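Two proteins were folded this term; both appear here.
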Amino acid sequence: MNRKPIIIGLTGSILLSGIYFLFLVLIGGIEHAVGFVSFLWYWLAIIITGFGLQIGLYTYIRQKIKSRAATAEVSTSVGVSTGSMVACCLHLAVDLLPLVGLSA
C-alpha cells in the first residue's frame, strides 16, 4: 500500500491549521487566537479534516492517472473537483486584499 497520499493529507491538514492559527495571531493576538479556536474547535476540526482528506484523495487519484490505471471519468472528476475547491475558497482572498494594499 502506498502511504504517500496519507502523509500528504496529514501534512496538508497540519499546514492549514498552522497557517490559520498564525493569521489569527497576527490579526488579534494570541489571546484572540486561542479564544477563537477554543470557541469553534469542532467546526475547525471538520474543515481541517475535510481539507486533509481532499488533498490525500487528490494525490491518490493523481498517482492513478500517472500510472494510467484510471479512466477518463476519473481524470475529468479530478479537474472538476479541483475547480470546485478553488471556487469555494476563492472568496477568502477578499480578506487578504487590505494586506496587499498595505504592501503596495
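Next, the second protein.
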Amino acid sequence: MTTPVALADIDNFHHEVDVLVVGYGCAGAAAAMEAARAGASVAVLERGSGPGGSSAQSGGELYLGGGTAVQKACGFEDDADNMYAYLSAALGPYVDAEKLRLYCDGSVAHFDWFRDCGVEFNESFYSSPTWMPFTLDGLMWLGENAWPYNEIARAVPRGHRPAAKGYAGHAMMDALTATCDEMGVQTHTDTRARALVVDGDRIVGVVARKFGETVNYRARSVVLTTGGFVDNEEMLEQHAPVLQGHGKVSDGFDDGSGIEMALAVGASTRRMGFVEAAYTATPAHAVRGMLVNALGARFINEDVYPGLYSHAALHQPGPCWVIMDEQGLEEVSDVDAWGVRPSHAAETLAELEVELGIPAGGLQDTVAAYNRGAEAGTDLFHKDPKWLRKLEGPWGAIDPRLGFFPEGAKTTGFSGFTLGGLSTDVDGRVRRVGGGLVPGLYAAGRASSGMHGEGYISGTSLGDGTFFGRRAGAHAATIS
C-alpha cells in the first residue's frame, strides 16, 4: 500500500511528533539529530529491528576534504575549490552543481560535526591502492591521484575512515545513533511505513505497520531516508535495468518504498537510471597488471578509483579479466590481495587466450602495445608511470566473478546500487511533478537524488546522505 491516506479518514493517531523521519541509516540519523537540535520532537521509524541499515554495513568511507584536521596531520593541503574541481569531474557528467558546491564549501565543518558526534578518525594515511584498508588508518586515496583527475585538480586524498578495520560503517552509525539517543530522539524499530497521510496537498504523517498492527503517526513534517531501490526488481526493470542480474549493495531493504510513497502524492524524481557498480577486481592486482575485456582489450587506466573501472567494466563485453605476470603477483601483499589468486595460468599469452576464450591475438596485441609504452615511460590510457613496467610471463588471469576471499559460487562479479531518487532542493524539500514543492515532505540519502551525476566515488553516499540529511532535518523543524 502506497496510496496516500486522507487525514479525515484516520480516527486516531498513536504517536504525534514535530518531525517524523522514516529510515534509520546515516541520512536518517543526521536528519533526526539536527531536527532535535533545532528544538523539535523527533521520532525515527525503522523497519529493521535496529538502526543502521545499509550505512552500517558499508565500508564506512566518508568523502571529506577542503583541509580537514586529518588531511593536515598527514601533510596534505586542500581547499574547497580544489575538492569541487575533482568531484565535479569524478561524479559527472550531470552533477547537481548547487548541492556539490555547498558540500565542498561545508566539508571541513561536516568533518568536525562527525567528530563532535563521537566518530573517531586516526591521523594516519594508507597509501596503497585498495577498495578499503584493513587497518586503522584514517585517510586513503579515492582516485584523486589518477589521470585525468590529477590534471583537473591538485591530487589530495579525501577518503576519511572511522577508526575501524575493514567495513567501518558500523563505527560511524554507532556514534550517530548514540548522539541521537542523547538528544532524545525516539526510535521505533520493526515499524514499516506504508503510506503518507495528507491534509489537502500537505504531508501530515505516516501510516505504518508493526507486527501486523496499523500504527498512525501525526507530524508537522516527514523526512524520507529509506534508501534506494536496488532491491526492487520491478523498479530496476523500469529505471535501471543495467543492474538486473547482478548483486546488491544493500541491507536487503532498499526496495524504493519511500520513493513510491512520495510518487503517490505527486513527487518528482531525478536521474533514476544512474547507478554505481563494484566489480570484484582487487586494485592492488589491477594496477600491477591490466584489466581487459572479453576481446582482450584494455579500456581504462587501472590506477583510477576502482569504482570507476568497475562502472566501465559493466559496459564492456564480458567477462573482464585482470591479467598479471609472476612478478606483479608476487608484489601484492597478503593484506591487499584479499585472498584472491589467479584462476588461470599459462606459459604464453596464446595459451592464456585459449584458456579465457579470448580471440586469438587479442591479448597478445594488447600486451605488446602495453609493453612498448612501458619501455618508453608512457601509456595509452595514462596509467601513472610508477605502475608501468614491461610485463613478462609466465601469465596469470584473475576472474573477478569468483569474488573476494573466494569461497562460494561464481557470480557476475558485479554488485551495485542506485543513485537516482526523489528530486529535492538543497534543504531536502521534495519537488512536485510540474513544479513547486510537496509541502511538509523532505528526503535525503539514497531515497533522493543527491549531488551525483553519472559518476560515483566511495564516501559520497555517506557524505551526501549525512550532509543533506542534516539540512533536511534542520529545515523540517521549522515547519509550523
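The longest helix spans residues 460-476. Residues 237 and 244 are 7 Å apart (CA to CA). These notes refer to the second protein only.
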